[in-house]
Design goal:
This protein has about 180 residues and is an alpha/beta fold. It folds into two domains: about 40 residues, Monooxygenase (Up-down Bundle); about 130 residues. The protein is about 30% helix and about 20% strand. It is built from six helices and five strands. A five-stranded parallel beta sheet has the order 1-2-3-4-5, with helices on one face. The radius of gyration is 20 Å and the shape is elongated. The N and C termini lie far apart (about 80 Å).
Length: about 180
């Protein structure tokens, strides 16, 4: 008498293991991963897999904008390092921030190139779910606008490095921890 053969595919693995495997893939692979099945979609589009964009420095900004806009349906913790030599690239990274900021809970933004008006525009949006923000610039920047459009009711911690204000900042009313690197 032969025994029935039991096979288990990768989609039979627990979600925790699939999530751990997904951590080692590129952003493009995560999008492909999410197209395999409903289970893989739930794993591949888990917001914390998309939070640290510093680890993908070789990806073109326009590709990153498309992937992030597609994959981040809910609030996230975002770590974005912008290192580029062309202002066109800064504009594309600013587009990422512009699309994601309204859904960002925790923001760590490091700009290691020239600050542009596009970055200003991205940071002028209201940030209704933002709880903490750390914004760092390689060169001195003076904001001539209200950061987060003056609307960040959940903001508790704000840390600024090489950034000063030229206008009153209503968001500071809710901040409990404010710091600068001066």
């Amino acid at each position: 008498m032969s025994h029935p053969r039991i096979t288990a595919g990768i989609d039979g693995l627990p979600l925790e293991i699939l999530l751990e495997l997904a951590k080692y893939t590129s952003l493009q692979d995560r999008v492909r991963f999410a197209q395999v099945s409903r289970t893989f979609r739930a794993v591949g589009l888990t917001p914390h897999l998309w939070a640290d964009l510093r680890s993908w420095p070789t990806m073109r900004p326009c590709t990153m904008v498309r992937l992030v806009a597609r994959a981040l349906p809910s609030s996230v913790q975002l770590r974005l390092r912008i290192e580029c030599t062309r202002n066109e690239d800064v504009a594309q990274y600013a587009a990422i921030l512009y699309h994601v900021l309204p859904r960002t809970k925790d923001l760590y933004l490091e700009v290691r190139c020239d600050w542009t008006w596009q970055m200003d525009c991205a940071l002028q949006q209201s940030a209704s779910v933002l709880k903490s923000a750390h914004i760092q610039s390689a060169s001195d920047v003076e904001f001539e606008f209200s950061i987060f459009g003056g609307v960040a009711p959940m903001l508790e911690t704000l840390w600024l490095d090489a950034i000063t204000f030229d206008v009153p900042q209503p968001v500071l009313d809710t901040v409990r921890n404010f710091g600068t690197a001066d």
